[in-house]
Amino acid sequence: MCKTALVVGGGQTLGAFLCEGLAADGYRVAVADLNGDNAQQIADKINQTYGEGMAFGIAADATDEMSVINMTKSVDEVFGRIDLMVYSAGTATAAKIDTFPMDAWQRSLSVNLTGYFLCAREASKIMIRENRGGRIIQINSKSGKVGSKHNSGYSAAKFGGVGLTQSLALDLAEHKITVHSLMLGNLLQSPMFQSLKPQYAKKLGVSEEEVEQIYIDKVPLKAGCDYQDVLNVLKFYASEQAAYCTGQSINITGGQVMF
């Protein structure tokens, strides 16, 4: 029987790319996103490419407990198992600490940390019940290892994700469920990074056209992080080849972060 992946935040950008990459690798994919129409479009594309029944889309708010419970219940009803849960939902607001809005702080914690907790908790219930082991992988950031100027809410939540990953790994080891965080470098072409360019330009005192090169110059390998880089590492840690690894925060930063 095909393994099943649940990708939270799978309806757009990196999450959508991961959904399609996992489908190409033989997974049946539950595409979950706050925007249910986007989720269904990605699922339809997978079904057209790899065969009907290989994917379905579902609207879910990762920050709402009942929404997450209903999401995993739907995956269970359709596929009967969850072998891999990828948490790819995220949000960021750039502002200096003396002007950082409280609602932006709370939203960062809710989406980047609480949502991860809720989705991991509910997915693990099905993994434990099925007794086949499993994989939980959070899409994190280098900002979860080093502080990020004018991004205190995002960085604090991502640091929290590392601690949560390690704690989940300890809780779930007896069930052969491994848990990891992928610490991404700058996804320069992502809508999130592009939307923050005006704020980064102001922070750095440069034009918006100069922002990307400044971030590239910070990387030893002189390149931004690409979606394919993330998929390559994710597929390894989701595989049986990585069965003896758990609780890790894996850098995908081109050498910008090395611990």
TrEMBL record:
Reply yes or no: does the keyword Oxidoreductase apply: yes
| Alphabetical keyword list | Oxidoreductase
Q: What is its EC number?
A: 1.1.1.140
Q: What class of enzyme is it?
A: oxidoreductase
Q: Which GO terms describe its molecular function?
A: sorbitol-6-phosphate 2-dehydrogenase activity
Keyword Oxidoreductase among UniProt keywords:
yes
The record, for NCBIfam families, names: PRK12384.1 (NF009050)
Q: Which family does it belong to?
A: Belongs to the short-chain dehydrogenases/reductases (SDR) family.
Q: What is this protein called?
A: Sorbitol-6-phosphate dehydrogenase
Q: Which organism is it from?
A: Vibrio barjaei
